[in-house]
Design a protein that fits this description.
The complex is a heterodimer of chains A (254) and B (403). By secondary structure, chain A is of the alpha/beta class. Chain A has a domain at 1-84 and 162-171 and 193-254: 3-Layer(aba) Sandwich (Rossmann fold). In chain A, 37% of the residues lie in helices and 25% in strands. Chain A has helices at 49-56, 78-84, 100-109, 115-128, 144-156, 174-191, 202-208, 226-232, 238-247; strands spanning 4-15, 23-34, 38-42, 64-69, 72-73, 85-88, 162-166, 194-198, 211-216, 219-224. In chain A, the strands form two sheets. In chain A, strands 6-7-8-3-9-10 form a six-stranded mixed beta sheet, sandwiched between helices. In chain A, helix 3 packs parallel to helix 5 (144-156). Chain B folds into two domains: 2-54 and 179-402, no CATH class; 58-173, abc type-2 transporter like fold, CATH 3.40.1710.10. Chain B has 16 helices and five strands. In chain B, strands 2-1-3-4-5 form a five-stranded mixed beta sheet, sandwiched between helices. In chain B, strand 4, helix 6 (141-161) and strand 5 form a beta-alpha-beta unit. In chain B, helix 1 packs across helix 10 and helix 7 (180-195) runs parallel beside helix 12. Chain B is elongated. In chain B, 43% of the residues are buried. Classes of the chains: A alpha/beta (254), B alpha/beta (403). Chain A binds chain B through residues 54, 57-61, 79, 82-83, 85-89, 91-98, 102, 105-112, 138, 151, 154-155, and chain B through 11-12, 14-16, 18-19, 22-23, 26-27, 208, 211-213, 215-223, 399, 402. The complex binds adenosine-5'-triphosphate (ATP) and magnesium ion. Magnesium ion binds next to helix 1 of chain A.
Chain lengths: 254, 403
């Protein structure tokens, strides 16, 4: 089945339009994502990855073009969409004075999940990210990576149909990142959930993503399976594609 | 969806309120401040007024008196005051002429001057009403207290002798809306209440932006208005701690005044206790008024905090915006009525919601307010809070809130 769950048409976002500081963060972006796919958004800093996610979840309004999530226009039916998607923001903070469990449970509560169900989901998620023993500690004593794991768990507590993860594994140690990746893989393969993630880790992309979209200065310069893109750019791996695209050293001949 | 149901609390909101309160109640210093500030303010007030009681009683005052009346009532009153000098805590009663008195008024060297005018008896006999004049220097605690004692006493003297006749006292001073004790109490309640929610609001709005927790909060399936209302509920719940300890503070304050006054002669004791203690029956109204002050302060705070980028900026802006008008009202309160000015300044004073809190509290504490005037004060404060909350919600809904 190939149900499209995300679709953008000429999606454009311009910040500070008409001013000297004007930035075209998204420039006519067209992308389709099917249910159950894991899509990695790649690109250098400032390429527009976070902006794309923010538009799709209704935090930013598009300047031009359209964006549909689960078949609904993000500017019109954001309430419907928000019930069914979740976000892990890039620089997400955490409520330091709450415990790991409370962070997860209270967040889920705001999605309207019943208390008992919430506690069970929290149990499961805390087990998966390996923080069950520390669940009743206030998060303020946690390391950066531990906090990030709590946040990953939190973003999944509502069991969203689509989850947007903006650099989920940044700061998480090797084993932790593996755990997160395995969890995401399972969510996609076993539960058919759609995952949109951004990362700067190309190995992660190769391991996890069904498809990647490469953004540069607001343009979606390439989109497809990692192997197809490597072929398209006549590169041995994604890193070479990157070097070619962003340093001009390589084999950019499209 | 109806207007009201957009704001009605639901289960999702409950979790947000819980999250806010848990975070807050684990901020020990914040809670400590909410407990200590009202108790400290009222204890300070108690100590200060105990000092005033001591000042106005331990050293009796000098009172000037002029008897112009040639009839029987003037003489009776004069004699009664003279006989009861000790009860009235008057050390010296000096008879002066009207001309001497007027000179002292002009030179401001006078503290209390009681004048029984020429046709005092005649007026009392023909009209059943007569007026004596008391000048007091309001800058002097002792003078005000002595003047009050003489006036109350004189009324007793005249009313005891001829029940149907009425003594009026013409006060020659700026007539204060309330006594010193009340002005100070009101001022303290105000200033502490206005400042109390500031740290919470700073943490709950600008703090969420600064710590990057807001973005995830804004994508939950709850409207921004509901998020705002949940935070407002949490803020009000939190300030209940503050209000509860205000009641504790008031009780401690009353106790400190009574403890000081019990050593005085009976009449003086009654006088001071009545003058300075807060009537227990007024506590629920004080509580209510404080809630309105807190609501206004929170709504102003939400607007500032939704506009400011970080918690420190929000808090300092908030303090500035709240402190200046409160100080203005406070200072006006000590120089007489806060309604003493007309024109633009008068309008400015009336536009400050906290002015209405002062009017409300003064009215309640002095017993002088009418139901209608209290309603106007309450309506103004509620209206003010609602308008500011709407502005806050608009600011909260703008896109730039996440950056
Ligand atoms: N709120 C904003 N106001 C003005 N400019 C913005 C705003 N948000 C993003 N930008 C600009 O838009 C561009 C894209 O930013 P974005 O955060 O989407 O990049 P990114 O691909 O996520 O980068 P990174 O890898 O560093 O996270 C940048 O030039 C950024 O400066
Ligand atoms: Mg980003």
């Amino acid at each position: 089945m190939n149900e499209t769950v995300i679709r953008t048409e000429g999606l454009t976002k311009i910040f500070e339009q008409g001013k000297k500081r004007e930035v075209v963060a998204l420039n006519e972006v067209n992308i389709d994502v099917s249910r159950g796919e894991v899509v990695g958004l790649l690109g250098p800093n400032g390429a527009g990855k976070t902006t794309l996610i923010r538009v799709l979840i209704g935090l930013l309004t598009p300047t031009a073009g359209r964006a549909y999530v689960l078949g609904r226009d993000v500017t019109e039916e954001i309430d419907y969409i928000r019930e069914r998607v979740a976000l892990l923001p890039q620089e997400a903070g955490i409520y330091e004075r709450l415990t790991a469990r409370e962070n997860i449970v209270y967040y889920g509560g705001m999605y309207g999940i019943p208390e008992e169900e919430l506690q069970q989901r929290a149990d499961r998620l805390l087990d998966i990210v390996g923080l069950r023993e520390k669940e009743d500690y206030q998060v303020k004593g946690f390391s950066g990576g531990m906090k990030r794991k709590v946040l990953v768990a939190r973003s999944l507590v509502s069991e969203p149909e689509i989850v947007f993860l903006d650099e989920p594994t940044t700061g998480v140690d090797t084993i932790g990142a593996r755990v997160v990746r395995n969890l995401l893989k399972k969510l996609s393969s076993e539960q058919n959930r759609t995952i949109i993630l951004t990362t700067h880790d190309l190995n992660e992309v190769a391991e996890l993503c069904d498809r990647v979209g490469i953004l540069n200065e607001g343009h979606l310069v390439a989109v497809g399976k990692p192997s197809d893109i490597e072929e398209q750019f006549k590169a041995a791996n994604l890193e070479e594609v990157f070097v070619g695209l962003f340093t001009g050293e390589g084999v950019y001949e499209q | 969806m109806s207007m009201l149901s957009r704001f009605m609390p639901d289960r999702k909101m409950k979790y947000l309120v819980k999250k806010e309160l848990k975070s807050l109640f684990r901020s020990r210093w914040l809670i400590f401040g909410l407990i200590i500030s009202p108790v400290f303010a009222w204890l300070f007030e108690g100590a200060f007024l105990s000092f005033v009681v001591a000042q106005t009683t331990s050293e009796p005052s000098r009172v000037f008196i002029t008897l112009e009346d040639e009839g029987v009532w003037g003489q009776t009153l004069y004699d009664a005051i003279e006989t009861d000098m000790d009860e009235l805590l008057i050390s010296e009663l000096l008879s002066i002429t009207k001309q001497e008195g007027d000179e002292m008024v002009a030179n401001r060297t006078l503290s209390v001057w009681v004048r029984i005018p020429a046709n005092f008896t005649q007026e009392l006999e023909y009209n059943n009403v007569s007026t004596m004049v008391i000048w007091v220097n309001t800058g002097n605690f002792r003078a005000t207290a002595a003047g009050n004692r003489v006036a109350g006493f004189a009324r007793e003297v005249i009313d005891e002798i001829i029940v149907i006749r009425d003594l009026r006292v013409s006060w020659r001073t700026i007539s204060p809306e309330a006594t010193y004790g009340h002005s100070l109490a009101v001022f303290l309640v105000m200033i502490v209440s206005v400042m109390a929610p500031s740290p919470y609001i700073g943490q709950s709005f600008a703090g969420e932006r600064e710590k990057h927790t807001l973005e995830a909060l804004l994508v939950v399936p709850m409207s921004r208005v509901r998020i705002l209302v949940a935070k407002l509920i949490a803020g009000l719940a939190l300030t209940m701690v503050y209000s509860a300890f205000t009641v504790v503070g008031i009780l401690l304050y009353n106790w400190s005044i009574i403890a000081r006054a019990v050593g005085l002669p009976l009449a003086a004791m009654d006088y001071y206790i009545n003058l300075y203690t807060v009537n227990i029956a007024a506590i629920p109204l004080i509580f209510f008024c404080q809630l309105l002050i807190l609501l206004c302060a929170i709504s102003i705070g939400i607007v500032i905090s939704s506009a400011a980028k970080d918690q420190a900026t929000a808090e300092s802006l908030n303090n500035l915006v709240l402190l200046v008008p409160t100080m203005v009202i406070g200072i006006l309160g000590f120089t007489g009525s806060i309604l003493q000015y007309g024109g633009l300044f008068g309008i400015f004073v009336l536009a400050i919601p906290f002015s209405h809190a002062v009017l409300f509290l003064n009215g309640v504490l002095s017993g002088a307010a009418t139901a209608a005037s209290l309603m106007v004060n309450v309506a103004y404060m509620l209206g003010f809070a609602i308008v500011f909350l709407i502005i806050g919600a608009k600011l909260f809904e703008r896109e730039a809130i996440i950056v």
